[in-house]
Structure formats: structure tokens, C-alpha cells
Sequence to fold (909 residues):
Amino acid sequence: MNFLAPLALAFAATIPVVILFYLLKRKRVVRLVSSTLLWEKFLAETQASAPFQKLRRNWLLLLQIILLALVVLALARPFFAGEVKGGRLLVVILDGSASMQSRDVAPSRFDAARDGALELVDSLDRTDRMAVLLAAGNTEVKQSPTSNKPALRRALRGCEPAESRGQMLDALRLAQSLTRELSNAEIHLYSDGALTGLDEFENEGLNLVYHRIGEGAENRGIVAMDVRSHPEDPDQQAVFGTLINASTNTAQARVELRFDDQLVESRVVSFGPRESVSQVFSVRQATDGVFALRLTDDDALALDNEAWAPALRPEPARVLLVTLGNRFLERALLSAPRVQLATAPTFEAAAGDFDVTVLDGIAPLAWPAGNVLAIRVASTNWLEIQGELEAPPIVDWKNTHPLLRFVSFDNVAIGSAIAARPSPWAAPLVESPGNPLILAGEMGPDRFVWLAFDTTQSTWPLRVSFPIFMANAIEWLNPAARRAERFQLAAGDPLRVALPDGLREARIKAPDGTEAVLTVEEGSQEVVFGGADQRGTYTVTVGTNEFFYCANLLDAHESDIQPQAELVLGRYARTEATEQRLANLELWRWLAAAGLAVLLFEWWWYHKRTA
Amino acid sequence: MPEALLSPQLLRRLEQFELLAMRRARSSLKGERRSRARGLSVEFADHRNYVAGDDLRYLDWNLFGRLDRLFLKLYEEERELPVRVFLDASESMTFGEPRKFDFAIRVAAAVGYVALCGFDRVAVSVFPERPEELPVRAALRSVRGRQTALGFFNNLSRLTAGGPADLNAALRRGALEARQAGMAVVLSDFLDPAGYEAGLRALLGRGFQVTAIHILAPEELAPTNFGDLRLVDAETGGMQEVTFGRYRLAAYQQTVRNYCQRLREFCTVRGINYFLASSGTSIEELLLRQLREAEVWG
Fold:
């Protein structure tokens, strides 16, 4: 037999102390009495003059010593050497996404999750190991597998939630790799279930325990914000905002629009249960600046009550149309807002700088720099031309893409089109069976749009969707609009700043006022700032220029704080939220300590009775 | 002074009592007790035939007139009742508040006063011996007549207590010394390691009508000294270590009750009147109620 805590045997020193208490000659007060006869009779059974005589047949003392010896043995944790089954591996994943900062559970969901994980630590057996992962903007391994409880507690207390959406997929994959091929492994996920991307995760027999955190869904949030030129009035900017009500009750909220912290408009929005509402504000903008949308009412999650969007003063796009003559196209381009159109029969014949080049079936000798809309241009290295398609039917189009906003291809017939296999970085927007008809993509800083068919050989120019598509295309290809898009990012994403030639340094001021100076690396024209975890406006100073980058949450999944009863993993697997799991707390130490206390109390009580 | 021992009111009450002897008085001296001896008194007992030489003053002339025969009237001769008070004056009797010895002296005075009022002979045996008190104790050895009561009280109040006593020896000696048996009143705390049985048996064997008055101090009935104590016996000097708390008070009182009960049973089966008195209680309760109810006097 061995001992896990042999030092506890030192407590055996208390046994002689108990005996000593029994032998101890007490200091007695001398009293003269008439006769000791009655006292002798009274004490005949209990009192003896010699100390060792007193110890004789003292069952109480014997019992006390046996009890004390047992307690000391228990504290020393004796064990027999033998084969023991290996302990469990528990992987704790704390959801550190923005929705976990909801205050429907006091003090917050994240604190409740952390408390649950700490209770799990308390329940660990000595052979169990645990790892701690924090799934915030990134997945961090806060503690690699260990059975060291203080280290686990320290790691859990060091976890903080982020203001961004959570990357739960990475965390689950990491947990899966940690527990792979372990039969007695468990993954404990502390989350409210507001997670994205789990449909990509294939649950391969994972022992996943989902601890659902959160109670209510009293939240209104801003889930989308965009600033673009007003489609009806080119002199104005339209600020779009999408707001949702996560609650199952109807609600009202006051929403404010500010420009550079000046109140522009305030209005009250009514929501149905779990409804999203879009709002459009029309604003005349004189300078570059930052629009801010703000929900002024208090709710469970404060992070989604404000969003920012940088906006540059609208400038006309300079467009070169290279065509042999296409009136439909020309008129469509002219009808687009803020366009300065120039036409030329060849690209080489055009003079000056252009933001967008439209090639109407004419291939240039040298490919134009900048953004290009190419219509039936075959000689390009973007594509692999495979032949010609006759009257290809239109079977699908992606109307979620900004290019196809308000665009429909119903009743559009095409005479012929180039059959091409697109490069992987080009996204097909309109498709006939097995062949893309419109492609869009980005390569480096440039964007391009490619049409496989001649618009004049189709019924499209006769449809209302044609000028709308052209307006969308010019807006999407306009570098100014693209710059504005680059100034908007999700909190937690890296902030990239392209530097002009000759400048090596950028100064970044975070929303909380802290500043960082970044120096560009050799051979690069871009600095990357990885600390954009806070929501708000980052002011970037490069040379004498100043830009605004806005980091937002803008995530419908995070704003919908309704705790999910189950997680859907992959196509088939579902994990239901577990009820509170009873932990196997080790109690024997407490019991043994209580035994010791009772023993001491018994001794004290016994002697109090005689005093 | 008698006032110091017994109040005038109590004395007046006591004067109304007389000792009720269960046995006929045996003293050879005339007194106010009826005895078996026929003799001269006012209480008529019987007639007998006249024989020559009888005192003619006792002839019943009325009977002679009717029957023409001479009869002699016989009267019950009234004799005295010897009352012997055994007073424990050992060191243990000096304890208590009020002292047990003072209580015992007052009881002795009361018993003596009732006896003196009844023209009985009172003898007070004080033990243990103390040579310096020999004259006082000698004066208490035989007292008779009501007129001696004042001196009797004075002598009692001059008694002191001290030293170890042997109860059995004292009672045995008292039983032997008495020429006639009578009433014996034992005033003691009966806390003698050697016991009390032999002494009481000796008195009974001599023919005494015995009354045992067991006097204990309040402190002995319910001690108020708590803690780790070393108790020293005042008489023997023996020591006893004891750890005593309030939680054990009831057990101690049970021990005392058991001790008294054994003494009571010993007395009851032998026809001895037994009374337990705390020196802290009123003496009137003992004298006017308990002794009267037990028909020691009435």
C-alpha cells in the first residue's frame, strides 16, 4: 500500500496530543469541605487519582484514537498499485462571440459559461485531463490538456469575449483533432448556439455536450449597413440599414443616423415578432466622413446597437466605351448616375485616364489597366475559350450579387454565346447549362465583368433590367466605390492599408484612442493591422492623407440572441442542449475533515460537561 | 441567652408541647410521666385489698361505706422521661451557611426546653470530647426543671465545634452510660466514614426511643463550587480531586438523595424517627410541623 499524500501522516502527531489531554494534570482549586464522603460516593466510578489508572478501560479514549487514526489515514490517501483505466479527456470550448456578451443572464452569458466550465473543473477526477479553447474572433488554445486544476482555472479566468462573430468551426475542428481516437473524450461546448458555419462540420461520432447559455432574446440590432449613391437623386447618398428584432414580441426602437457625430435624422421603427426591417435614409453629403446608425434603446446586447460606415463624397466615374456603335449600351451607360462617358472605336484611339473601360466586342492590343467590363471579348487570358453556343437558355442567376441587384433575366433570349471555362477566381453570375454567361471577379486591385454574348444579339437591351445592370456594373467597377468598401470591415478582421510609393509608415488610431505605428515590410506595399478587435472607427494616417476604417459587428446570427435548443452539425447531425450535468465532486476530503472537527468537538463537549 | 437560640414566640409555642414517649417512662425518679409503677399521683389506676401496714390515707372510704370492706385506691405513679440529646460537634458541623452546628444547637435547645417544661431529665452528650469545654459539658449532662432552662440555653450557646468525631463510638458510649433508657435525639450530619449503623443499633438495643435528625448544609445538597477542584476533608484531611460542572449537578444530587434514602430506610425499619433538615431552612418547619406530625411531641 502506498500513499498519495504521505505528508498527511504527520497528522498522526495529534494522537499523542489526545492522550496528553487525558493525562494532563489539571490545575485544581483547593476547597475545604465538611466531608468528602458524598464526593467519594459520587466519583467512585469516574474519578481516579493516578493518570494511567484513568486511561485503563477508557473506551472513549480508545475510540477517539481509532477515529483519529482513520482520519489521518484517509488524509494520507492510501492506494493499492494496480491497473487503472485511463482518465477522460475533456475539451471545453467557450463561445467568445459577441452574442455571449448579452446581459439576459447576470452578469453576462460569457460569465455564466465560464462559471459552468469552472464547475466542470471542480468535478474532474485526478486522472482526468482538460483542455480549454476560446472560440472568439479566432480560436485560441487557452490551456493544453492537463489535470492541473489551478492551471485550468487560471486559463478559464483569463478568457475574455470578443466583439466579433465567433469562429466555432475552427474550434470544433481543433477539438475533434484533440479527441481523435480517444474513446473516453468529451467536448463540452458552452454557447448560446448563435453560431455560423457549423453546416460545414461533419460530426464523426463526436462526444459533444452542448451547454446552452442564455434565457431570453430581448434584443434589437443593426445587422447590415451600406452607403451608396441614391438611385433616384444622384446628388444624394442613400444610407441603408437593416435592423432585426430577435424577440418573439413586437417592439419599437428609436434609430438615429449621425454623420461625423452630428445628428442627421432620428426615427422610430416598429418590429413584428422576430422581424427584420430595412430603413433607407437620404442624405446630402458634402465631405468625406463616417455615417453612424445607432439604436438608442437599451436591450440585452449592446454591441449591435451601433454601426458605422465610411462614405466618400460622390465623384463621377470616368467611363470609356470602346465600341463600333451600340446605342442601347451607350444610353444605358449614360443613364447610370454620375458617369462621364467617352466613346472610341478602339481602345488605342482613346486618350486620357479612365476609371472603367467597357469593351463592346473589341479586343485591345494591350489590355487596359483598371477595371474592365468586357462584352463578348474572346482574346483574354482570363478564360479558356471552348467554342460557341447557339441560343443558350438562361437557367440561373445570382441576384444576391451587387451586380444583379434588381436585375431579372426573365424573358431574355440570347442568340449565341462564347463557351468558356472560367478561372477559379471568377464567379459565374448568370448561367446556361454547363456554361457561364456573365462572370465577375477580382484580380489584385482590379475588377472585371465579362459577358459571353453580344447584347445586340439578344433581347436583353429591350428589358428594363439592362440599364439597371449597367448602372450596377459601373458602380461596382468604380474604384471610388471599391475604396469605400475596403474601408468597411468586420470587427476582428485584419485591417489592410495600401501605401503609395515612397511612404513606409502608417499611423492607426483605434476607437478607444490607442495609437499604433505600422511600418511596411521590404518588398510590400501594404501594412496589415491585426488588432481591429474593437468596433468603431479607426483613423489611419498615411503621410498627409487621413482615411477612416469602420469595424462593425453587423451579423444577424450574433444579433439573434435567442438561445438555440440544438446545434445542427453538418447535414445530418444534431446535438441537443444538455440539462445541467451533475458533477462528481470529490467529497471525501470534506467528510474526513468534518470527522476530525466532530471528534474535536466531541472532546471539547465532553470536557465542558465536566467543567 | 435564650433569645439568641430560640425566639420568645417559638418558646411559647414549645411550652404547649410535651414529649410523647412510646414507651413507659423508666426513671426511678418521680416525674410527670405515666409509668408502669403504681404509686401516688392524681391519676386513678385500680383498687386492691387492704393488707396490714398499708397507708391508711389511700383507703377508699366511700367503698368501705357501701361494701363494708377495706380497699386501697391505687394511682399511676408519674415518673420522669430521661431525654438524651446526642450533639455532633465535629469539624464537619462547622460548615454551611448558616452553620449546621448552630442549627443543631437550636434544635437541641428546643428539644431540651420541651423536656424541661415536662419535668423530664435532659442530658446532652456532645462529641467529640474537648477538654477545654469540660465544665460546660458537665453542666449539660443532667438538667431538670423548667427553672434551669435559662442556664441550659446559656451552656448550649457556649459550646464550640471542632475536631474529628466518631459517631458510632459516641452513641455506643451514650447508650452504656444511661442508667435508664428514654428518648434519644441524635443531631448529626451522619457524614462519618465509619458509618452510623453500629451506634444507632446500640441505642435501640439499650431500649432508647431514637429520633435521628439529619442536618445537611445547603452547599452539601447543591454545591456551587464548579471547575477543577481539589477537595480537602475538614475532619480527616483526606483529599479528593474532582472536576465538577453544572451538567453533573443533578447526578450529584441523586447521590445525596440515595445516601439520605439509605439512612432513612435504616431508621424506618427499626422504628427510628428520621428527619432530614437543611441548615438553611426554617427551624420552625422542623419543630412545629415535622416533629409534631411524627408525634415526637404533641
Strands of chain B lie at 30-49, 71-79, 82-88, 121-127, 143-144, 183-188, 209-216, 227-233, 239-244, 273-278.
